[in-house]
Amino acid sequence: MNKDYKKIICFSIVAGMLLSICGCGNSAASVKSEGMKKVGSMDVVAATYTDASDKEEMIESFSSADGLCVIKKYQTYYDVTLDYENGEPDAVGKAYAETILEASPDFMEDFEPYLHENIRNAFGGRRVNEEALEERIETMVGSLPKEYKDEIISFAETISQGEEGYVEDGKLSYIEALTMQMIPDTLRPTACSALSLGGEKTVSGKRISIRNLEWVAGSENQITEIHAVTHMKKADSSLTSIGFLGVLDMITAVNDDGVMIAILDVGSKDNLPFVYMGKKCYTFEIRYALEHFETAKEAGEYLVGESGDFTWCNNLLCTDEKDAFCCENATKEVATTGKAKSVLRTTDSELMEGLKWDTPDALCIVNTYATKGNQDTFTGEEFNTTRFVKYNKWVSEKDKFSVADAKGLMAREVVDQYEVSNVHNSGNIHTVIVDYDTGIIHVSFTKGDCPEDIPRFLEVGEY
Description:
With 463 residues, the protein is α+β, with helices and mostly antiparallel strands. The chain has twelve helices and 16 strands. The strands form two sheets. It has a ten-stranded mixed β-sheet with strand order 1-2-3-6-7-8-9-10-11-12, with helices on one face. The longest helix is centred in the first third of the chain and has 17 residues, at 3-19. The radius of gyration is 21 Å and the shape is globular.
């Protein structure tokens, strides 16, 4: 396939997913699938994995003058350490921005057009009302806890170097630098999936949790050039975030107690209006939970409790060594209609009628709620149904999984298929595997046009 054409298709598919899942709402009596397409081929050569992952050699290291930020550059990703033990949040934000400008001179030229692509997608082709968008962003920044607000404002002031407004010019203005911190909260992410295998299903007897992130990569795959593993050092509340350089919210993260949280979008059939007044940024609420709770149960209960004030409906994978949960989070606007509710789903939760899951000690999440009586976006959503069916089949086929087996789940299908719904598909940006036996975090990062059929996993640290 022509490389440029392939790039356009990859971007269009993920952008199409983004535009199709706005708002929150609706329920149905049972799961139904109408006109479901074939579930996809398994034509890749069998992948040979081991439990160990490669470690890349550092290319270069950069540090802020005060030592509050250290960025190590690797071939595939940036490793970032932010030191909150020796500096206040505003000082850390400033140090981070200064160090990015040194470590990645092309950062603004890559991120700024990518940000504008996300803005245009969020407005669905309509004229972007920049004044209204700026009000939206400023309001959401104002909702943040003071330490996070101070940090991202300082970051934005430093990296913008006096630039103002939404002007697509290859530079990051102050408001653009704030906007980049809350894409999932104010513009919207795309599709994802997750699987957590409890000790009864693993060779080690300890949990293995997996998350796939599907995200808009950008027309020039800009986001795949700035993968980042960010270590936030805060004494006994430290965490590791797998995301993108310069971004301080949480997309996939695990704290030093092993609590892992990852975001998955949930759409709506009713397309209720976007509400941001009086709302909170759920990605920063996740950061708060990771910094303040030692168990998945505590973190999950907190996030479900706060979910009425989120801007979007979402699912959150929330696991630790002992437990696995899905926070099925509904906004208060949707809950008021009676069409969805916030629930902390467990492996024991009763699923909606017609939905089948055959493995008791495993939890599967796609881009819809699954608890009985909650909003059903399996019915009529072939992409959700197919991935859930595949996970169910694959997990049922094997008695116990190793980390190598978990990696192999992501290499069962040819990625470059546009007529089917794959688990590991053309929209994948990263896959994270947390092994609770060793504490090691394994990540495959997509580089370039589309993911590899057989992804390469890297060891990026321990929680």
